[in-house]
Amino acid sequence: MRQFRSMIYPYVVWLAVMVVVPMLMILLYAFTKEGNDVTTFRFSLENFARFFSDAVFLDVLKRSLVIAIVTTVICVLLGYPIAYVIASGPEKSKMFWILMITLPTWINMLVRTYAWVGILQDDGLLNSLFGLLGIGPFKMMYTTFAVVLGMVYNFIPFMILQIHTSLAKMDKSYLEAASDLGANKVQSFLRVTLPLSLPGVLSGITLVFLPAVSSFFIPKLLGGGQYVLIGNVIETQFLTSGDWNFGSAISLIMAVIIMISMYLTRKVDTDPAAEGRRE
């Protein structure tokens, strides 16, 4: 294997250039003031104090977390039954339905989100259908509903695939044993299937919550300029205001929040199979 060790060097260089160096730059910018040159740095916590002392930014952070949590909960509630039905179906149809779920992800997320603009706008497809039924039109664009719908549509495949993977790998003998012990279908699901599928649910929560809390183009397209989430604030600081120091500080705050959420998810992710055997 030593002869192949040199093959990892290009990946190490790529990782250093594309990941480590940018993160170090964000860390440096976050703890320095604007106007530094190469030779002198003025370290300060001013950027963080500015964020936590401004009620507007805190309100945006709160709104972003709420939207991400709502999106994640909806994805769990919708994704679990879909994954369960697919995993319980015949083998021949499983690949077809998995393909149908993953097929939209082959298209760029920005293009898919633009499609919802045409569906939700005042003279769009949905309002046209409502008009044929004699109801509406309804204001759907530039609302919380539109933003949550766009996020759920874009991120729910990640939830379904993770849960389906856990359900597909589940040992069916546990269900047979539960049935032999007198458990009905509901009891078997609650005591066997659900605990064994929790690792997939938690992985799906991670894959949905993380991009949802930092998304910026979905609220920008479907929420309009007046609907701002924390990702939009970061984008504005870097591309419009040119305040890279403050933008880096917000990015670092979001990185800490994401790491905390990942830690909590990992903390909850126990070994349900072992617990089931102990019971």
Sum up the structure in keywords:
279 residues, mainly alpha, disordered C terminus
Task: Explain what this protein looks like in three dimensions.
- The chain is an all-alpha fold and 279 residues long.
- It is built from 13 helices and no strands.
- It has helices at 9-30, 46-53, 55-88, 91-102, 109-120, 125-132, 144-169, 173-180, 185-214, 217-222, 230-239, 244-268, 272-278.
- Helix 1 packs across helix 12 and helix 9 packs antiparallel against helix 12.
- It is globular, with a radius of gyration of 23 Å.
Q: How are the secondary structure elements laid out?
A:
Layout: H1 9-30, H2 46-53, H3 55-88, H4 91-102, H5 109-120, H6 125-132, H7 144-169, H8 173-180, H9 185-214, H10 217-222, H11 230-239, H12 244-268, H13 272-278
Helix pairs in contact: 1-12, 2-12, 3-7, 3-9, 7-9, 8-9, 9-12, 11-12
Q: Tell me the span between the first and last alpha carbons.
A: 44 Å
Give the quaternary arrangement of the chains: single chain
The major sheet is characterized as: none
SSE run: HHHHHHHHHHHHH
Number of helices in the DSSP assignment: 13
User: What are the segments in which pLDDT stays under 50 over at least 5 consecutive residues?
Assistant: 271-279
Mean residue pLDDT? 85
Structural class: mainly alpha
Fraction of residues in helix: over 70%
Radius of gyration, CA atoms, in whole angstroms: 23 Å
User: How many distinct beta strands?
Assistant: 0
Report the principal-axis shape: globular
Percent strand? under 5%
